[in-house]
Structure formats: C-alpha cells, structure tokens
What we know:
- This protein folds into 2 domains: 1-72, no CATH class; 74-161, no CATH class.
- Helix content is 28%, strand content 14%.
- It has helices at residues 37-61, 81-87, 99-111; strands spanning 14-17, 20-25, 65-70, 145-147, 153-155.
- Helix 1 packs parallel to helix 3 (99-111).
- The protein starts with 13 loop residues before the first strand and ends in a 6-residue tail after the last strand.
Amino acid sequence: SEDPEYREFVENALWVHGGVVYATLHLVVLTREPTDPATARRRQDAAVSWVRRAFEVARESGSVGVFLATQADPWIASGRPGLIAEHCEVCTLPRPGLESLYSVLAEEATAFDGQDPTERSVFSFHQEIVPSRGLLGGWPGVPGRGRRTDGSEADTSAAAR
Length: 161
C-alpha cells in the first residue's frame, strides 16, 4: 500500500490504465474468529481505506471506471435477495470480518461519476452492491430501493424484508 498508515499491506496495489483505476484489496474471510482480532481489524481498515483511495484517484484522474480485485469474495452468495433468503438465511448477512466494507462499496460505487453503475457492462460481477439492484440496499446502514426483474421498484431496506 502507498498509504503510509498501512504500508505493511503490500497486497493493496493501485494503478491506472486505459482510463480505469485498478486496485487490489487484501481481504481475509474467516468462518471462525480470527486468532488476532487486532490484526484482522487493521487489515479491514486498510482495505476500506484503499477502496476510498481507489475511487478518489478515479475521480481526480477522470477515470471512467474502477476495478476492484481481491482473493476473497465479500459476498456469501449472489443473486436475488428474496430468493437467497428463502434458501439460506445467513447468506444475506454481511460476511464475518468484512462488515465495514459493504457500506463503503455502496457509497463509493453509487457516488462515482464515471459510468452508470446499474449497467450490466459496468458491474458484470456482484451488481447487488448497487442499491438499485436490490441486495446491498437491505444491509444494515445501507438504505436503498431495488428493482424487481419486471422493472418495478421494491423497498430493499431491512425493515421491508
């Protein structure tokens, strides 16, 4: 990382190519408690800071997009929130250890002034981070409205579920 506060996380890299900001994030997804909670929290803080930095660089450089890559999938499952919840209650919850990442992804992706984040060509993977797509709008602290497959609007807030 170029961030002096998180220099030890060398996996957090960033570059600009062809009008797109590319950033890698070091995330560790655990199904049990980490052996060192302070290290896990620091790693998570570094990832959140790096996501913010990637979008900041994109805005400053006039980039048309941001591509974030990580070795860990921050979502337990992808797809329609209602369908996922029917078959797997825990799959609609934030992945343990990554809770602070969700609201930052939603905030930065929807505020980004590049291409329309609701277009499938822009978010071909995990479109649910865009509130109008539905899933993330229902996560704690992330209000939003979603669209059903027929195009009608749906309230995706946790209270509506």
